[in-house]
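agent: user wants the structure for Transposase from Paracoccus homiensis. delegating to structure tool.
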Amino acid sequence: MSEIENITDGGRPRRWSAAEKLRIVAETIYDGKSISAVARLNGVAPDLLYRWRKPMLEEGCIGVAEDDSVNGNRTVREMESRIRELERQLGRKTMEVKILKEALDKSRAKKPNLLAQSLRRGGSP
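agent: tool returned. relaying tokens verbatim.
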């Protein structure tokens, strides 16, 4: 079961199991209680209850039960960070290839000149 950390009164961390989330969200839907009242009764911040409720209404029980960070923002940030790092690495490799191609072109341009100079001096090809 996934859990989420919520800081409640007193500043102590609180963990909510998926079953607790589902029960609390169900109170707002089936018992006809307001979200603020349910939040107060259960010691949950109303905005957190809204965030739990949204995926449940959109995706059903799975939306809340599988929720790793309520809305997956942590996963998105990790993936964006990984993409940025890979883009940096790609940029470096692209520059390396460009530099090596320029060096190869310059060496090819000098090679006929060196060969011609060698022949003038009496060297063999």
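agent: one observation worth passing along. The mean pLDDT is 78.
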